[in-house]
Design a protein that fits this description.
single chain, Immunoglobulin-like, Tachylectin-2, Chain A, 8-stranded antiparallel beta sheet, 6 helices, 53 strands, about 5% helix
Length: about 750
């Protein structure tokens, strides 16, 4: 008789990432009759169907941002024998750049693991504070803890529409490593349910727009929130500020704003920046930048706010009509911070509601893969010490998350990479948690609300729907290498030269843009992914600055690599071959086996790495457009001869003894090669001024004003700058110690 009790009755399926071996949450495992379930945060699913045990069963496997390679009758899946007490391990390949880690809120986070007796990193692994679902997280370090707040919260038998809250211990003071999970300690009522954190705010739903620790008159940190009380998404009842009562563990109304300062609810994740020794609280949601001094008195005063935008006549008359000192006679619009004259923050409704304002004209996010425009808005903007730049986690409808970098918090925000995709399902209000950053900011963590709401999907994902999911992003990932602005600057003597951010800050005062003429193009930093790119050298000769791509000549010795760019053409063997290749070997029976090459040249010598690990290269040689290899696999030697043509590889292979033979084919997939099809990639021309002897570089290919003479052919290919104005905020400095100060609850000196 079959045992229907205990863990031994289940057939366990574990789905792991083939690159990390870690269990993958949110993998749908379904049967042909429509039965479906999802792996828990350990990547585990406990299967038991009385009629389907101890027999072969087809399981269809699919998951947002992951691919299951095995096909059965054209469907991604596998046939498994469902024996109680046994288990199967399946591997999926991650397509997303970011890695899905676990669900943070809701019921059954580790339900299948509990059924199988497996380890759960959190104590309340199945139900915590009776919470079934939660909308939109706000999180902040405060008084030696991390405080978490959510919007509408669903319970087992009731609801909380006045904000739920919890705390967790920071990782370095006893809390979980964020790679494992978050141990939430909810603020609960007498029944044990997540209690309202805003209980005395009146009729309607209360949503927090943001939370932040700010200093009061005694320079002590207080936890302040801006709230919006609504009757519905489009009917605002009240807006104001609330202070957290540390003794009662609730928010209390502090300032109610006059009706003219009301604005639609929008989730902000503010950061603290410093200007001339003074701390400011910055708001970035919707690319509508505003700031205010980070004190309780200033933050609660609507007229103390500043917003970032274009100066017009009356804002700054001395600068409003400044002329560009560059190639054309057009005026350069001047941007900066100016006092708020209207609402606190002119915002639009959250999620997929119509915008009340367009994205600022100086924000032009482009897809690095194609050059197409990306209609995304922040999430969050925070300083990252690993990149030494500001980083953006942005949301695009529906369920897409993008990553970008900028030299200053207001931009230039241009090139971005999609890091998470949810097919037909929403993932809104994503935010990076800088208090979880690891390895000097190389590893970052972000979460968002996974829900069918606003997505058009009529099918809800059991347990996961309307809850928070954590992702991790390794900023050293080659796919996150993005082009950087290249500045044209001049010194006091009028010498023109080009530089990137780090050298720029060493060359000019942080609080002035007078030395910056323009950002003429974007290129790749020298410390990022440079496969298939060429170095561009900077040379100063007798006071004249010039760029070149030549190497090995005497008069180019006094130079340094300024950036990397794309070659004009792939004409030489090195340019044709060097890069990443995805290939497959096909035997006489038509069986395909995937493998990959990374070809690289050291001088005239071709080297290669090959995957998977079981393959080894014994010998390699090449001609103008062909490569010959001797490979070793399981003590058998193979000879492979292949030709390269326009990013395609075709050839033949055979064992040395001639007993086996077949064909091989592949395609080049490295970043540099694929950028050839991007509309953002353009030629870079050199212009010479015979009168001054100066050189400048531009992506403008038609003749400029008569003072400049264009080179006959381009120097290389770079990425265009679609922003015509110079929009920067170098006066804002990141505060790297704020998290520690907020934990301790004491102000800095």
């Amino acid at each position: 008789m079959m045992n229907l009790c205990g863990k031994d009755r289940f057939f366990m399926i574990t789905v792991v990432d083939d690159s990390t071996g870690r269990g993958v949450p949110l993998v749908e495992i379904s049967l042909v009759n429509g039965l479906r379930d999802y792996t828990d945060s350990n990547g585990v699913l406990a299967f038991f169907e009385p009629a389907l045990m101890n027999r072969d069963v087809f399981f269809q496997i699919r998951s947002h941002g992951y691919r299951f390679k095995t096909l059965v009758h054209g469907r991604p899946g596998v046939v498994l024998k469902t024996i109680s007490g046994q288990n199967a391990v399946l591997t999926v390949t991650r397509v997303n750049v970011a890695e899905r880690l676990y669900r943070i809120t809701g019921e059954g986070i580790y339900c299948h693991s509990m059924l199988s007796g497996r380890f759960s990193p959190i104590g309340n692994s199945c139900l915590n504070a009776d919470v079934m679902g939660q909308d939109t997280v706000l999180a902040v370090a405060y008084r030696k803890k991390i405080f978490w707040f959510w919007g509408d919260t669903w319970g087992v038998d009731t609801f909380n529409f006045a904000v739920a809250g919890a705390t967790s211990q920071p990782p370095d003071t006893g809390g979980l490593n964020p790679s494992s999970g978050v141990e939430l300690s909810y603020f609960v009522d007498d029944r044990g349910f997540a209690k309202p954190m805003c209980p005395d705010f009146g009729y309607g739903r209360v949503w927090l727009d943001w939370v932040a620790p700010v200093r009061d008159g005694q320079k002590e940190y207080r936890l302040l929130a801006r709230f919006t009380r609504v009757a519905s998404l489009d009917k605002i009842l009240e807006c104001g500020f609330a202070l957290f009562n540390d003794r009662k563990e609730i928010f209390e109304p502090f300032v109610v704003l006059p009706e003219k300062f009301r604005s639609p609810h929008l989730s902000h994740h503010p950061f603290i920046g410093r200007v001339n020794g003074k701390d400011y609280l910055y708001f970035t949601a919707g690319f509508e930048f505003s700031r205010v001094r980070a004190t309780l008195a200033a933050v609660t005063d609507p007229m103390a706010y500043e917003y970032f935008g274009r100066y017009v006549s009356g804002d700054n008359p001395s600068n409003a009509d400044r002329t560009k000192a560059c190639l054309t006679d057009r005026t350069r619009h001047i941007y900066g911070w100016k006092k708020m004259t209207g609402n606190l923050v002119q915002t639009h409704l959250q999620n997929n509601e119509p915008k009340t304002r367009e994205t600022p004209e100086w924000i032009q996010l482009l897809n690095i893969e194609t050059g197409a425009c990306v209609d995304a808005r922040p999430g969050s903007i925070f300083w990252n010490n690993y990149c030494r730049r500001w980083i953006l986690i942005a949301q695009e409808n529906i369920g897409q998350v993008w990553f970008a970098e900028a030299d200053t918090p207001v931009g230039p925000w241009v090139y971005s990479r999609k890091v998470v995709s949810h097919s037909g399902y929403n993932f809104y209000n994503p935010t990076h948690h800088p208090f979880f950053d690891q390895r000097n900011g190389r590893m970052i963590y972000f979460e968002g609300t996974y829900t069918h709401i606003f997505s058009g999907s009529v099918v809800q994902t059991p347990r996961y729907d309307y809850n928070q999911i954590m992702y991790r992003l390794d900023l050293a990932e080659p796919r996150l290498s993005l082009p950087q602005p290249v500045y044209r600057i001049h010194d006091g003597a009028g010498t023109i030269r080009y530089t990137l951010r780090d050298e720029l800050l060493r060359s000019i005062p942080r609080n002035t843009l007078d030395y910056i003429e323009s950002i003429d193009f974007f290129a790749m930093k020298t410390d990022r992914n440079t496969i298939g790119l060429i170095p561009v050298y900077a040379q100063m000769n007798h006071g004249v600055f010039r760029l070149n791509t030549k190497s090995g000549e005497k008069h180019y010795r006094r130079r340094h690599t300024l950036f990397y760019a794309l070659p004009l053409e792939y004409t030489t063997p090195a340019q044709q071959i060097e890069g990443l290749w995805e290939c497959k070997a096909i035997d006489a029976q038509g069986v395909q086996r995937p493998f990959g090459f990374h070809f690289k040249f050291t001088g005239q010598l071709l080297k290669a790495d090959i995957s998977p690990d079981q393959l080894a290269i014994i010998k390699i040689s090449y001609s103008s457009k062909a490569v010959n290899l001797i490979l070793l696999h399981e003590k058998i030697q193979y000879q492979m001869n292949a030709e390269f043509t326009n990013g395609q590889l075709t050839g033949h292979w055979h064992t040395i003894d001639g007993m086996q033979a077949g064909t091989c084919e592949g395609q080049r997939v490295d970043f540099a090669w694929k950028q050839g099809a991007s509309s953002a990639v353009v030629p870079l021309y050199e212009y010479w001024n015979p009168t001054t002897g100066s050189y400048i570089y531009s992506t403008i290919c038609h003749p400029l004003e008569s003072a400049w003479v264009r080179s006959g052919s381009p120097l290389c290919r770079v990425w265009k700058n679609p922003i015509t104005d110079l929009v920067l905020d170098y006066e804002t400095e990141p505060i790297l110690t704020l998290v520690r100060e907020s934990y301790n609850g004491h102000p800095h000196n």
